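Supplementary notes for students who missed Thursday's class. We covered one full example, reproduced here. Read the sequence, then the structure, then the short commentary at the end.
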Amino acid sequence: MATVIFAVGMAIAGRAALMAMRDNLIRDSFAHSLIKYKIFADKAN
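Structure (token representation):
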């Protein structure tokens, strides 16, 4: 019985990890395409 409970827990955890990875990849791809990197010179003089 413990093996069945462990297997169900691993299936749920694995699915959650895959969904988190998918969301992370989708959001990162949009973020990198929308962010522009600019370096401003220090105008303290």
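Commentary. Helices lie at 2-34. The chain is about 75% helix and 0% strand. If anything here is unclear, bring it to office hours.
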